[in-house]
Design brief:
The protein is an alpha/beta fold and about 1950 residues long. The chain contains 55 helices and 56 strands. A hairpin with a 2-residue loop joins strand 20 and strand 21.
Length: about 1950
């Protein structure tokens, strides 16, 4: 399509849109074509990447297709005969290769361009062709018409209208469909020598051409420097030129050319570094059609065009990028080091074109030396001219241009809105807004890209507010529930309200208006921002003027120079040059990645400049040199013996810190002296707090949710143990810390099932792995174990999970980066169904992107401990984290815990000007260490006071050092504080450690405190003296023990110098008092990097203490100050000491280093944050400070003004008299915020200052020292979080809030490895929960290409979550390790719990105390002998404890014990005793068990189709049923071989039965029938494991209304469906039908056997009646009869043994014992077989028991009744005591669950047993329950009234004829049978207290009843079906002769007439 328009189109844009609309309507089935004018006026979004990654040249052949559909197989048309088919030649035989045509003059028609075609068969060359430029995209990837028009430059043939035809002509030989987008690769141009060379890539995908240009230009080796594109700027580092940083900064590299013509920057697409087009279409608009119009497959969906970012790179740079973690940050300057221009080649400029501009700009020589700064040029609008000369002194960044271009994409999110006036910001408005932004920046502020983006967005939104609201209202329906973002508030966070944006009107800002508006905007800030527009005709001219002014010193006070070029008829051009010294330095340093910056620092540390800096800092001006003073102090220390502190105080002189072992008690002395024990000291690392327990349970619930989901991704029931591996960053301290927590938690001891016994803490190291090169083998071993141990659940805990998220393809082999991706994201781990991954991190943002592997439902966030000020967990501690630190800066009532040191900042600022080439980290660290050294010298008292040392340090440093030195002296156990000194550079940290250690040694303070170098790669090392001290603290007796973690340094006075690019999860002790972060970098502004540094100060404070902002958080008073009140722990008094009280100003002037008093600026800041700028304007400039550095520092001025402001301090009498005399020490005072503010302005004025002694010292014998709590500063410190000192730049950023109230830093890019999906994104809201924040980042961030999740994209899916991966996130130091360790324990216990069941564990009841002396069978007899069984007396007594609430069956030899008190029990299971028993491998299971072995057995294996089954009807006739009934069998196809079907109609005839003579070791002969109801999920019908592989026939007997649900859960089981009339029947009916149907089937099988010619008696007559709760079976170990024990056996073994009994056919019923834990204990004489009642698991001979039926009407005790009748019929009943069955407690369903309800409602009501019956003619409330059930329950509960003489009268039982009914536990029943030849007990001499006749048949006669004797007044109860049958029975049995009846003694069950109630009559014996 579109070819007919070639050469005659006039409105290209309109035709393009028209084609696009027609194309979409023809090709798309899913996307509604957009209106033509909507496309015409609303441009589409651009995408940088397709499928989540950049398109490499190496992948173009495969990955450059235009859709996500698979490649279409393509067969090229065969070439004509005789034509040329050589690669690189056309079919006419002409050479097309670029190398051949490079010098040939080619005839290119007008409107055509030379294009390089990439041939797959010629990877190293290009083919030359000419293409009409209208069918190619422009520089922005747009306006390419569909179709093709090209000429062959070999043979000259013209007019190719189809690219398929053209590809055949030039012999491309493709295997896929030819597409111009895939093979037209590069524009060709002629260089200065006239040679045709490869130029920029054709921008088919918007900005992809820019990426390609970088890659190709840096990788083409055959191009000379002159031939390289002129827009490339290589990375500049001092002394080197490298291109390895290009990848990190691809957003800064400019784009491309077309036919050699210059194009304006407005047509070049440069998205910013932190955005890549819009977010997901579902969130930002219905459908986003990205890129130029292209052909799409039918299945194309806009969702498949995943938006990504511009961070593809050169392969050679990948390792460098991965190792440095790519610190391209969101600071406006970051990311420009790829253009930090060491421009060695004249053609290497910074314009946006490939050809060299006509005008170049020469960078002046000695620019850095003269101006002492390195200017940064931000590209703006238009091409930047080429720079020549001293280009190494200039830095160039295109990040501002990217920000401009990103603002052009803002309105395109509304492209489906239709034609509207919504237009992007103009270039003029962008420039003006930029000036407004620069004007409002403070003198020390560095611009942030987020601020500028938000300004642009806000301005644009305000100009189109009406249209946007209309669009949002129209979209709110479609995006509801999918857009996780929030609307941008009307005010911009971080943007001062005093800045008024220019009003937006319908008339846009014109170029002619821009210059004077820009000058007007800049005029408000003096010289800070200079606008150059007058007489500036080009950018080159403006830059030349700027350089001249800069060299001449005219821009000395200027921070920013904005160059604007406006010419009539041309587009506006601009650029911004940063000339502020502080800003230039910050921008230059931010262009380094973090690791590059550390390498640069390490390099600079050994340069002459660094040595000069160190020498400069050592000089104290008039006070001498530090080294010389230290040498003198060292000599004095060695010569003069120290005096006691008491002598020093008595003389009023400055006390010296004890420095010898004599002054400082050793650890042994401390332990041996009880008086020197601190009662407050306690350390407990293993305590599980309530909130940790709650999180652990939350984790467990998420794991269970995965297991319970229908996806079957985790089968918890198949695991029998837990194993785990904890992965930690490569930090030795973090490793040992995790080992310590693991060992202390007791998890290893609890799991207890590991292969090797864990006996020591070192053994716990097997479960923790450092993520270094050694981790590979450990995880490979775990994977192998997981594959071989499918019953073990392996948990991979990835702690500190945000640390390494690098893609393994971007990491070098010797680097530890990328290990997580290589190991945890491997196919083996992903596919292992028994490996679960738990990521644990405090900063989850980097794992919450559009490509995350973690489902949002699998995230667990740390809960808040408070809800509406209610303590939810009642903990002893409260968490004090980053938010609480920030809150302390806003309280305004006390000194904030988070602050900066203005004195330190002033000193570093001065030195940064003096040493412009040194990295600020080197300068700041040197100054800080010098301050610590001076403070140590001053506080030690070893240096003469005449040197005035305090003026050379700051108040904050002095306070820290004095607190460190004095705190330990006040505690009898010498508990002290920790000072954390954070120095990221290891080289600087090592230097600081050496320097401080040397000073400490020279001052003789080695015994006072330790200095520790925290190197992540090395183990913790401290001196032996301090190791002994820690052992005494922790009361460790092991002399070889050494601390391995920082936690074990609790209460040790020390300075910890923590190095490393970032903290690696090291936890700090609670004795941490000061967190000195003054030298951390301010360049890398991501949320994670900032918060993890602040997280070092996170703390658990005592819950009983008030929150820190309620009192002075820094009010830890130094105990040596004798002038403070003795009750300093009173919080109100502490508040007064910190300035909370108006009377504070009258406090005596005292030295209190622990007061944490800070200088004026931070104090003022705590009161009014807006006052920072006002104050900073009055502070002396760095240049002034430099001149005063040696004589007067700002800290000295602070002391002077502080003292002069005090109101005549009253010196207490016990203060030394020398207070007013000059002393060489500084002081700290308690100042209110107002005082600090008033003093600030006078800091510049030196005032004479009287010096006072630093520390009025008090020995521990002072009255206050008697209280351990008051004397131990460490103990008091538990209630106060540490103070945090920050750089001023970070402090300003962190403490600023946005419009929603969130800290400013929360809006930063969350991590360096992710990017914003769109600049048009809402803000985070203060009201967001953690879950909502996660959804926000999941929608608005995308991973960069070096992020391990960047490859986690699946075609056609919007998510690709790993089903067994969880994320636990919580604040730093909050206790996540303890939580997940406890979770491991809970999970292990749960798996054990899943492997255990509640087994009924009840001892037998009614056991006789007498032990029988007769041994009938040998204890080891395998089977019973029939003749012996016959002589064993039948035990009528019921021993099963489930029947402890029924009537005792009278047995002559049994007498109940007097202590047995029968208790009535309702039909509940709660009172029955159970035991937790682990399932054996032979257990029966319910439907929740689905292991791999039994999937096929159950029919649920996904590899198989769900089993089909057929329903077969079976008609059955029985005399007792009265009519034919129809049964149904549900028979699965796989089980049809067990049945016989008719050959004609396929009707079910019978069920196959084996023969008695069959002997099959893998077969069970007896069919197993399991009646069940209400237990379709919980019934134990899975006998696969119980049968141990034996084939068997198992039939579930279900009620008709439950047929469907049972079939659903058990599709592979045979089911016998009871008839409808049995829906309300009880267990008796089910057993009755099973037995009679089995006998009927036996006769059918015998008939079939006879027909086959065999004997009929050979058919197997036994069936098994099993309860649905039988779970396991046991056997007595006959080999250990001396101490008999039971062992678990399979059901197969039990049944085969019983079926193998030689005389089994002689028995009517067999059963086994019920298990109990008492078992065989105490049994002196073991009888393996007995005669008596059997229950639950029966082997029934249906042949011999033919004439004894189960009572089909019974609901309870049916088995007791059946066994009694069976025995009375003369059949043998045998119990195999060598076997026992375990019954599982199932509280759901079953035949014992009866609901008695009324007819009026279906809801069960409380109906008492007395209401179960009524008078025959009364109007009673009818019940809906069966009449037999009502009668049984009535007799059970009211028999004591019915048979009053029988209650608790065992010797006079109730005579029950032919049936057993439960009359309650108080009544004894004597069963007799009326059948002839029956077996009954001897009743001679027995007098009965009652007679029960239940449906007496003809065998019961009057003569039979006259044989028995009754008590006078005995009760008669006759039960019949109706009143007439009762009267007939009374008459037939002549009952009126001996029994008296009354009319009122006739009753019926409370049933309606249609329910056929039962009647009974009572009478009294005469």
């Amino acid at each position: 399509m579109g070819n007919s328009y070639a050469g005659q189109l006039r409105s290209t844009r309109f035709e393009e849109v028209l084609h696009n609309s027609i194309e979409a309507s023809l090709r798309s089935n899913t996307v509604v074509p957009r209106p033509v004018f909507s496309q015409l006026y609303l441009e589409t979004e651009q995408l940088f990447m397709q499928d989540g990654r950049a398109f490499n040249d190496d992948e173009d052949d495969e990955d450059d297709s235009e859709s996500n559909s698979p490649p279409i197989p393509y067969q090229m048309k065969p070439p004509p005969e005789g034509c040329c088919t050589t690669d690189g030649f056309c079919q006419a035989g002409k050479d097309l290769r670029l190398s051949s045509l490079a010098s040939v003059n080619l005839d290119v028609p007008p409107g055509f361009m030379l294009v390089g075609v990439k041939s797959p068969s010629l990877p190293d060359n290009l083919l030359v062709c000419a293409v009409d430029h209208r069918f190619l995209p422009d520089e922005r990837g747009r306006n390419a018409l569909l179709g093709f028009s090209g000429n062959c430059m070999g043979c000259g043939e013209k007019g190719f209208r189809y690219f398929t035809e053209f590809s055949n002509h030039i012999n491309l030989k493709l295997s896929t469909q030819p597409k111009k987008q895939k093979h037209l690769k590069y524009q060709l141009y002629r260089n200065n020598q006239g040679i045709l060379v490869k130029g920029a890539p054709i921008c088919w995908r918007g900005n992809d051409g820019r990426i390609r240009q970088i890659r190709s230009s840096l990788s083409e080796g055959h191009l000379t420097p002159d031939e390289r594109p002129s827009n490339l700027a290589l990375t500049h580092t001092p002394g080197s030129v490298t291109g390895s940083h290009v990848e990190a900064q691809t957003a800064d590299v400019p784009t491309t050319l077309i036919n050699g013509n210059h194009t304006g920057a407005s047509s070049i697409s440069h998205p910013p570094l932190n955005q890549s087009g819009p977010g997901r279409p579902s969130a930002t608009g219905p459908h986003v059609n990205a890129g130029p119009p292209k052909k799409r497959h039918k299945g194309w969906s806009p969702d498949s065009s995943a938006n990504s970012l511009t961070d593809s790179a050169v392969k050679s740079a990948q390792t460098s990028v991965a190792s440095s973690k790519l610190s391209a940050t969101s600071v406006i300057t970051n990311g420009a080091r790829s253009e930090a221009t060491s421009l060695q080649s004249s053609s290497r400029g910074s314009s946006s074109q490939l050809s060299t501009p006509e005008v170049s700009v020469a960078v002046p020589d000695q620019l850095l030396h003269t101006c002492r700064l390195q200017p940064v040029i931000f590209k703006g609008h238009g091409p930047l001219p080429q720079l020549t000369g001293n280009t190494s002194d200039v830095l160039i960044s295109s990040l501002l241009r990217s920000c401009y271009l990103s603002s052009q994409t803002l309105p395109r999110v509304y492209q489906h809105y239709g034609p509207s006036p919504i237009q992007p910001l103009s270039a003029e408005m962008q420039i003006l807004l930029t000036i407004y932004y620069l004007v409002q920046l403070g003198p020390e502020q560095v611009p942030l890209i987020e601020d500028l983006e938000q300004i642009f967005m806000r301005s644009w939104r305000e100009s189109h507010l009406t249209e946007i609201r209309q669009f949002q209202q129209s979209q709110s329906q479609g995006t509801q529930g999918r857009n996780y973002g929030i609307e941008v508030p009307p005010t911009l966070h971080g943007f001062p309200q005093l800045l008024s944006l220019p009003p937006q009107s319908q008339q846009p800002l014109t170029p002619s208006q821009l210059p004077w508006l820009a000058q007007l905007a800049a005029s408000s800030c003096g010289e800070s921002v200079v606008v150059m527009e007058e007489d500036v005709k080009t950018l080159a001219q403006g830059l030349q003027q700027m350089f001249s002014r800069l060299m001449d010193g005219w821009l000395k006070n200027t921070n920013y120079v904005v160059i604007i070029v406006t010419s009539p008829g041309q587009e506006t051009q601009s650029c911004v040059v940063v000339t502020g010294k502080h800003q230039c330095r910050a921008l230059a340093e931010s262009m380094f990645s973090p690791n590059e910056g550390l390498r640069e620092i390490s390099h600079q540390l050994h340069t002459d400049a660094a040595q000069e800096l160190i020498h400069y800092c050592n000089s104290l001006g008039q006070d001498g040199n530090m080294d010389s003073l230290l040498d003198c102090a060292s000599v004095e220390h060695s010569e003069v013996s120290p005096r006691s502190n008491s002598q020093i105080v008595a003389e009023g002189k400055t006390p010296k810190i004890p420095h010898s072992p004599k002054d400082t008690p050793s650890a042994k002395e401390t332990i041996s002296n009880p008086k020197e024990t601190c009662l407050e000291y306690r350390v407990n690392w293993c305590e599980v707090r309530p909130i940790q327990l709650a999180v652990a349970r939350k984790l467990l619930s998420h794991v269970c949710a995965i297991a319970d989901s229908s996806t079957q991704n985790l089968d918890l029931g198949s695991f029998n143990r837990v194993s785990f591996l904890i992965l930690v960053p490569p930090s030795e301290v973090s490793f040992q810390q995790t080992v310590l927590h693991l060992w202390s938690s007791g998890v290893l001891q609890e799991l207890g099932s590991s292969e090797e016994e864990v006996v020591s803490q070192r053994d716990a190291e097997r479960y923790v792995v450092k993520m270094d090169q050694s981790a590979q083998s450990r995880i490979d071993k775990l994977i192998q174990e997981a594959q071989s141990n499918s019953y073990t659940l392996y948990i991979l805990v990835h702690d500190h999970a945000h640390w390494d998220i690098s893609s393994m393809s971007y990491s070098c082999t010797d680097s530890s980066l990328g290990l997580v991706d290589r190991l945890l994201n491997s196919r083996q781990v992903k596919d292992a169904t028994n490996i679960l991954i738990l990521h644990v991190t405090s900063f989850p943002f980097t794992l919450q992107t559009q490509c995350t592997r973690i489902s949002p439902y699998n995230e667990i966030h740390w809960p808040s401990a408070f809800s509406n000020d209610v303590d939810l967990y009642h903990e002893k501690t409260r968490y004090f984290g980053v938010s609480e630190l920030l809150e302390s800066t806003r309280s305004g009532s006390s000194l904030p815990l988070l602050r900066y040191d203005s004195s330190f900042e002033s000193m570093t600022s001065t030195l940064e000007e003096r040493f412009p080439k040194l990295h600020s980290a080197v300068i700041r660290t040197t100054v800080l260490v010098q301050q610590y050294c001076v403070a140590l010298m001053a506080a030690s008292g070893k240096i003469s006071s005449s040197h005035n040392l305090p003026k050379h340090t700051s108040v904050e440093t002095m306070e820290i050092v004095q607190s460190l030195l004095t705190a330990a002296q006040q505690c009898p156990a010498h508990h002290g504080h920790m000072v954390l000194l954070r120095i990221p550079s290891l080289a600087l940290a090592s230097w600081a450690h050496r320097r401080l250690s040397r000073v400490r040694r020279q001052l003789g303070l080695e015994e006072c405190f330790e200095i520790i170098l925290g190197n992540p790669s090395q183990a913790l090392t401290i001196g032996q003296t301090f190791t002994d001290q820690i052992r005494s603290f922790l009361k460790i007796q092991d002399a070889e023990w050494v601390p391995h973690t920082y936690l074990e340094l609790e209460a040790l006075p020390c300075i910890l110098i923590l190095s490393g690019a970032e903290p690696l999860g090291e936890s700090l002790p609670r004795s941490l008092k000061y967190c000195d972060l003054r030298v951390i970098s301010s360049s890398y502004l991501q949320r994670t990097s900032l918060e993890q540094e602040l997280g070092l100060a996170a703390y658990l404070v005592k819950a009983e203490s008030r929150l820190p902002h309620n009192h002075g958080p820094g009010s830890d008073v130094i105990e040596s100050d004798a002038e403070k009140l003795s009750s300093t722990d009173n919080e109100e008094e502490e508040g007064q000491e910190n300035g909370d009280s108006p009377s504070q100003s009258s406090q005596p002037l005292q030295q209190c280093p622990d007061s944490r008093t800070v200088d004026a600026l931070p104090s003022r800041n705590a009161t009014s944050p807006n006052a920072i700028k006002d104050i900073s304007d009055n502070v002396q400039s760095p240049s002034k400070v430099q001149t005063q550095l040696q004589s007067q520092t700002s800290s000295q001025a602070y002391f002077q003004t502080t003292y002069s402001f005090q109101n005549q301090p009253q010196i207490p009498s016990n203060l030394p008299v020398q207070l007013a005399q000059p002393q060489g020490q500084s002081q700290s005072s308690f100042l209110t915020n107002a005082q600090s503010y008033n003093l600030t302005a006078s800091q510049q004025q030196p005032v004479s200052q009287p010096q006072i002694p630093p520390k009025p010292f008090s020995e521990s014998s002072s009255p206050r020292a008697s209280s351990p709590h008051l004397s131990c500063s460490w103990a008091r410190g538990l209630s106060r979080p540490p103070s945090v000192l920050l750089p001023r730049a970070l402090y300003d950023i962190i403490t600023a809030s946005d419009s929603s109230g969130l800290p400013r830093c929360t809006s930063f890019l969350p991590h360096i490895s992710v990017a914003w999906a769109s600049s048009f994104r809402p803000q985070l809201s203060k009201m967001m929960t953690c879950t909502e924040q996660s959804l926000y980042y999941r929608q608005w961030t995308v991973p960069r290409s070096y992020h391990m999740d960047s490859t986690n994209r699946t075609e056609g899916r919007t998510d690709n979550f790993h089903p067994r991966r969880l994320l636990l996130s919580g604040p730093p130091q909050v206790g996540k390790t303890g939580a997940y360790l406890h979770f491991l324990g809970l999970l292990s216990r749960m798996l054990i719990r899943l492997m255990e069941v509640d087994i009924y564990d009840e001892e037998d009841i009614h056991c006789t105390a007498q032990v029988e002396e007769v041994q009938y069978h040998p204890p080891n007899a395998p089977w019973p002998k029939t003749e012996v069984i016959k002589i064993i007396p039948f035990d009528y007594t019921i021993h099963d404890s489930k029947y402890d609430d029924i009537s005792i069956v009278y047995c002559p030899g049994f007498k109940p014990r007097a202590d047995e008190n029968p208790m009535r029990q309702e039909d509940v299971y709660l009172r029955r005793r159970t035991s937790r028993i682990k399932l054996s491998k032979y257990a029966a299971y319910n439907t929740y068990h689905h292991c791999e072995q039994c999937h096929q057995y159950l029919g649920f294996n996904p590899r198989y189709q769900i089993y089909e089954s057929t329903l077969h009807a079976f008609t059955f006739t029985h005399l007792l049923l009265g009519e034919d009934i129809q049964l149904y069998f549900i028979i699965p196809k796989s089980k049809e071989h067990h049945f016989i079907f008719s050959q004609t109609g396929g009707q079910l005839e019978s069920m196959r039965l084996p023969l008695t003579s069959d002997r099959n070791p893998d077969c069970i002969k007896s069919p197993i029938f399991t009646p069940t109801t209400g237990r379709h999920e919980h019934g134990l019908f899975n006998l696969f494991h119980a049968m141990d592989g034996a084939s068997h026939l198992h039939i579930l007997v279900v009620k008709e209304y439950e047929m469907a649900v049972y079939k659903k859960y058990w599709p592979n089981h045979i089911m016998l469906v009871l008839p409808t009339v049995f829906n309300g029947a009880g267990i008796g009916a089910a057993h009755f039908l099973i037995k009679e149907l089995s006998y009927h089937n036996l006769e059918l099988e015998r008939s079939r056997r006879l027909e086959g010619g065999g004997p009929a008696g050979d058919v197997w007559p036994f069936i098994i009646l099993a309860d649905d709760s039988c779970v396991m079976w046991n056997a007595v170990d006959n080999e250990k009869l001396s101490s008999p024990a039971e062992r678990a056996v399979s059901l197969k073994q039990v049944l085969q043994h019983m079926e193998g009994c030689p005389d089994l056919a002689q028995y009517g019923l067999c059963g086994i014992r019920k298990w109990n834990s008492r078992g065989l204990a105490g049994v002196k004489q073991w009888e393996p077989f007995s005669r008596g009642h059997v229950h639950d698991f029966l082997l029934l001979n249906v042949d011999r028991s033919q004439n004894v039926q189960y009572d089909q009407n019974r609901f309870t005790c049916h088995d007791v009744d059946f066994t009694l009748r069976l025995h009375s019929a003369g059949l043998l009943v045998c119990k195999f005591n060598n076997f026992s069955v375990m019954k599982k407690q199932i509280a759901i369903g079953g035949y014992r669950t009866f609901i008695i309800k009324t007819k009026m409602t279906d809801v069960s009501t409380s109906v008492g047993p007395s209401q179960y019956i009524c008078a025959p003619d009364s109007k009673h409330l009818f019940l809906a329950s069966p009449p037999h059930l009502l009668l049984e329950k009535y007799l059970q509960h009211t028999s004591q009234k019915l048979f009053p003489l029988s209650t608790k009268n065992y010797t006079h039982p109730v005579l029950s004829v032919d049936c057993y009914l439960n009359l309650g536990p108080e009544v004894t029943v004597c069963f007799v049978s009326s059948r002839p030849h029956c077996v009954n007990i001897n009743t001679a001499g027995l007098v009965f207290s009652g007679l029960l006749l239940c449906f007496p048949d003809t065998f019961v006669t009057s003569g039979f009843l006259k044989k028995f004797t009754f008590l006078k007044g005995a009760t008669l109860c006759v039960i019949g079906a109706d009143r007439s049958s009762l009267r007939q029975t009374v008459g037939r049995l002549e009952l009126e002769e001996q029994w008296r009846f009354r009319l009122s003694d006739e009753f019926k069950t409370a049933n309606a007439k249609e329910d056929r109630p039962l009647f009974f009559l009572t009478g009294k014996h005469i």
